[in-house]
Specification:
Rossmann fold; Helicase, Ruva Protein, domain 3; 4 domains; 23 helices; 12% strand; AAA_lid_NorR
Length: 477
């Protein structure tokens, strides 16, 4: 994403200083101007998006330059730099349209904050312009792109409409949301919307060191054809005109952040071992469950990269904020689990829907999917043991609340159960020993498996020999 900044000041040292500060923080396309009369031509020539101008200059001062820019380029923000004794004039500049003013001596952080704010506002205006052409209640133009996302939620439908609206923009898309909300599904839907003919290429960048990140994305060039051909294409080239999906972007290392920033700025990259730039034709989509705003404020994530990534931003709602989708998702995941495990079709009882609607689902959609598989695994063919879900919810709520629920209290009122390994697992003051825990798990698995030893072993994810050993130990004939 190009960001061209024009710096106007009649003092050469000031122009050099401001340009250096900007370049050190990722703004590579800084155009110097030491004669304000040349500013208009440079704005047209370099497609300038932001002007930083001194107030006091000969021939044409900052005030007059601001008037000219407002008249000819009203979409360009202007930041005025002024001495302390000229603040009143700077305020007048604000009244006629300056974006901000900064007093000298210049505080670099103050300048960078103003610049970032100016670009953020510019991007928001561009986004509003895109969305203003869309009716919020309109039918989706490409509903097929979202066919893999099961939802009736108005919040999700708004996200779909937003995705359709931003498709023409070449800027990156950032998808945020809690773990399990379906960020990769949204990224794939966005890829389908683009219909660019390229591939969807995904990589989880969490924990990658810089060398692996660079080699994975950019590939490498081998100058010795006899030794290994022309090298290997990186993921960017593999995606072609498609989509490069960078998952867990919040955990990207600092050195890798710099390289990603350059890719977004320049739209090109250098394969390792090559000095020939390769254009990036892929659309960049990134996702994270981290709070990137907090990370950039704490210095763990580059501020300039953050502002480039949020050009287009989707925040996915957690499942607890779209509970109307639970029955739809439950039925789909239940049918999927039954089919994959070769079980006959079974309908979920109404009480199961009610039970799950009261659960907050910290793991979101992924957690619901896993629960359906657990329930099917623990149930006899042709039936559903919803106690699996009930016990799971009780255990998780006990962990969150510390005091449990009324159902848990009733369970713990059973003295025999409460004093046994099962009861100990629900308490915080005591733990069963390993032998008692194994015996409890063995008995529970056999009960849920209807006495079938093979099914019980699968439920516990242990070998048949381990289960046989437990049988001899706990149920000798």
């Amino acid at each position: 994403m190009t960001r061209n900044i024009l710096v106007v000041d009649d003092e050469h040292t000031s122009v050099e200083l401001y340009s250096m500060i900007l370049r050190e923080h990722g703004y590579d396309r800084v155009i110097p101007c030491e004669d304000s009369r040349n500013a208009a031509g440079l704005i047209r020539e370099h497609d300038i998006e932001l002007v930083i101008s001194d107030l006091m200059m000969p021939v044409m001062d900052g005030y007059d330059l601001l008037l000219k820019i407002n008249e000819e380029h009203p979409d360009i923000a202007v930041i005025i730099l002024t001495a302390q004794d000229k603040v009143e004039t700077a305020v007048e500049c604000m009244k006629i349209g300056a974006f901000d003013f900064i007093t000298k001596p210049l505080d670099p952080e103050r300048l960078l904050t103003a610049v970032e704010h100016a670009f953020t506002i510019r991007e928001l205006k561009e986004e509003v312009n895109i969305l203003s052409t869309e009716r919020p209640d309109r039918e989706l133009s490409h509903p097929g792109a979202f066919s893999e996302i099961l939802t009736r939620s108005p919040k999700m439908k708004k996200i779909f409409a937003y995705m359709e609206a931003i498709i023409p923009s070449p800027k990156p898309l950032l998808i945020t949301g809690e773990s399990g909300t379906g960020k990769e599904l949204i990224a794939r839907a966005f890829h389908e919307l683009a219909n660019s003919g390229g591939d969807f290429v995904a990589i989880n960048v969490s924990g990658l060191d810089d060398a692996v990140f660079s080699d994975s994305l950019f590939g490498h060039h081998n100058p010795d054809a006899a030794e290994g051909g022309d090298g290997r294409k990186g993921l960017i080239e593999q995606a072609g005109k498609g989509t490069l999906f960078l998952d867990e972007i919040g955990d990207l290392g600092m050195n890798s952040q710099i390289k990603l920033l350059r890719l977004l700025q320049e739209g090109e990259f250098f394969p390792l071992g090559s000095d020939t730039p390769v254009p990036c034709r892929a659309r960049i989509v990134a996702a994270t469950n981290a709070n990137l705003k907090s990370r950039q404020e704490s210095g763990d994530f580059r501020r300039d990269l953050y502002y480039r990534l949020i050009a287009h931003h989707i925040e996915l709602p957690p499942l607890r904020d779209r509970t109307d989708d639970i029955p739809l998702l439950l039925d789909a995941f239940l049918a999927e689990a039954l089919e994959k495990m070769g079980r006959p079709e079974v309908k979920a009882p109404p009480e199961l829907y009610a039970m799950l609607k009261t659960y907050p689902f910290p793991g979101n959609v992924r957690e619901l999917q896993g629960l359906m598989y657990d329930m099917v695994t623990a149930s006899a063919p042709g039936s559903l043991d919803i106690s699996v879900i009930r016990n799971y919810i009780l255990l998780n709520r006990a962990g969150e609340d510390g005091d449990g629920s009324s159902e848990l209290s009733e369970l713990m009122d059973d003295e025999q159960y409460a004093r046994g390994p099962g009861g100990m697992l629900l308490r915080k003051d005591k733990m069963p020993n390993m032998k008692d825990a194994e015996e409890f798990l063995y008995e529970q698995a056999l009960e849920r498996a209807g006495g079938n030893q093979s099914r019980a072993a699968k439920l516990l994810d242990v070998s048949q020999s381990t289960l046989s050993r437990w049988k001899q130990q706990f149920s000798p004939e």
